[in-house]
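#onboarding

Welcome to the new folks! Below is a worked example of what a typical request in this channel looks like: someone posts a single protein sequence, and someone else replies with the predicted structure as tokens. Don't worry about understanding the tokens yet, we'll cover that in week two.

Example request:
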Amino acid sequence: MAISTVGMPELVKAAKHGVMVSPQRVIFEGRNRSAQIRVVNSSDQPCKFRVELVHIAMDATGRMREIKEPLAAQKNVEKMLRFSPRQISLKPKEAQTIRLMARRPAGVVDGEYRVHLSLVPVPPDPSSSDALEAEQVEKKTSVNIDMMIGVTLPVFIRFGDLAAGVTASNLVLHEGENPFVNLDLNRTGNCSVATDIELYLSSPAGGDETRVGRVSGAAVYYPALLRTVKIPLSVPAGFRFAGKRLKAVLKDHEDTNHPVFSSKIFAFRE
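Example response:
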């Protein structure tokens, strides 16, 4: 089983509000069929979550939305995954483990099956001791820590000989006070892919390269073939890109050795 993490906006928000989840991405493959997810309440307030499975689709910009009906190839995925507990209650600084087990029902063909594990916040009962404790903490600290931030993380179950790759194309530069580029990721193969993107700036003559941008764990979910990512650039104020070259290096996020999927050089006109 390979387990790795991918940064997601809702996970970042949850961490800021005192809820930490590790790992943030689970992959079942090969002979291994069990995994654990650790949930930590690092805040000063108690919290409670309902644990459930949801289906999420990704569009070409990387935005994700919940869908009521899963894609045809994903209809059986809920029968493949068992998990417990179904609800967790955490006191301040407390941690709990969610255990997952995957199985292959009869008749399931080779391929990748994806579902998302969602931690849905449960509002405290106003009359409960937890609610009273949270109210006392809020008054004492004068800080309203919003614990009603949900967490959603992908779970992949893979059977058979699966592989994926990714290439970069269509880089568009946006100059200004906070420069960035939009870059298309083109997925190949028969499963999802997650890549670490590194951008290196150099002159047309070559020579030293300076890393000016990085994104970790940008994913393109199967069966989508394309995703556009936004990458901020770290350059001095007023930097001129005209005549420079930008090399995009895409590395395998899931492999601990991070081998290179592909690289491509983009040249900016004078």
